[in-house]
Amino acid sequence: MDFTALDAFQRYPYPHYARARDEPGLVFSPELDAWLVSRYADVREALARHEDLSSVGALRPDTTLPESVRAELAKGIGGGGVVLSSDGEAHRRYRQPHNRGLSASSVAALRPFIAERTTRLVDEFAGDGGAELMGALARRLPGEVIGHLLGLDPADVPAVVRGGYRATDLFFRPMGLDDQIEAAREIARTQHLMDGYVRGRHAEPRADLITGFVHALAPESGEPTREQRAEIVSSLQNLLLAGHLTTTALMGTMLSHLLGHREQWETLCARPALIPDAVEECARFDAPIQGFRRRATRPVVLGGTQVAAGDTVFVSFGAANRDPAQFADPDRLDIFRRPERHLGFGHGVHACPGARLARAQLGTVLDELTRRLPGARLRPDAPIRMLPTLIHRSPERLEVQW
What is the largest distance, in Å, between two alpha-carbon atoms of the chain? Predict the structure, then answer.
């Protein structure tokens, strides 16, 4: 893997997408080792053809792990299927507890907690004249919210959040062997922590999302088998990654773009009724998950290109959301746009089940910051550098002053 070329692609993929859309068919991307699906209509078609294009391997690692690292991972309790990378009946089975636990009523019940935690976090830095908002807010609030929803002890939330970041580092970033081994050990420890919760909720059910997963994936009255526990732990890990890393990412890009477009920020401060539209436009403009891989289960024609059975395509939400055939002047951020049918939260059977929860947090954060810190602006001596990733695209740091 050429990480230099991959990093450059991931930090700013939009010129690559634009060139791909200009070609008559799909373009093979050596950085992604996949056919790049970049036009809006083709992306929606690909997401609808789940029998022709399998989700298995949707998050194929960018690194090959040595045996010593795999041995450390084997000491955990994971490896079960998850909603993101499954098809058919397995996908429906894994999806069911997500849909129930992230329903409109569940998110509505969480709103007071989201508001209270947002206020407390902003209280910690509002009087300081400035803050690094990725660390002070964006990486904290979503983890606390998903931890509360799951039913985690607040003292365990930081370790669980860190375990999620360590997993993405291990599988998608180049690391030295010692760092890989330590990351694998940390992931295994997180799995055992979550397994303790699974066992505890089976013995003493509560009104939380971990209990919902236990009931859905181990419905029998007896002690869950190790295989069942591995499934539940894997699903919980997947939910934790999707539930806080992607919301963290979108919170960071949303704030960086709105603060970087001064007139848009000032309009929001004056007209808070536009906040829901601003959230949708930011999800369109710079999607936190830029796309997922799909594997062709049979020969298929997509975007005018013949794709062979077994070939991989990268279905790019980020590219589709900048397609001028669907969105006028798509490279311009415009909170008045109301971008209907954008793909910032995916589409089809694999659309993000946590979109409501993400929207609730993002809207609350914008309401709090525009009301309390209307003079906030990006620090001119701290240029924004994006993380080299397509699965939680966000700034490395977000230095803001007021």
Answer: 60
Q: CB–CB of 176/163 below 8 Å?
A: no
Question: Residue 48 has which token pair?
Answer: 């609808």
Output the six-digit token pair for 173. Answer: 């970033």
What six digits make up the tokens of 138?
A: 């964006």
Read off the pLDDT of residues 309-347 as tens digits, 9 standing for 90 and up: 999 999 999 999 999 999 999 999 999 998 789 999 999
Closest CA to 136 of 329, 332, 399: 399
Range 66-292+347-401 has CATH code 1.10.630.10: yes
Label residue 368 by pLDDT band (50, 70, 90): very high
* Cα dist from 73 to 65, 87, 163, 174, 244, whole Å: 10, 25, 12, 17, 22
197-to-61, 96, 235, 238 alpha-carbon distances in Å? 28, 20, 13, 16
Q: What percent of the chain is predicted at pLDDT more than 70?
A: 100
Note whether 343 and 280 are within 8 A (CB).
no
Lowest model confidence (mean pLDDT) among 170-174, 191-195, 268-272 = 170-174
At 70-104, the pLDDT tens digits run 999 999 998 888 999 999 999 999 999 999 999 99
Q: How far, in Å, CA of 12 to CA of 6, rounded? A: 10
List the structure tokens of 160.
């669980």
Predicted TM-score (pTM) of the model is: 0.95
Could you tell me if 82 and 353 are in contact, meaning their C-beta atoms sit under 8 angstroms apart? Answer: no
Phi, psi of 140 (to 5 degrees): -105, -50
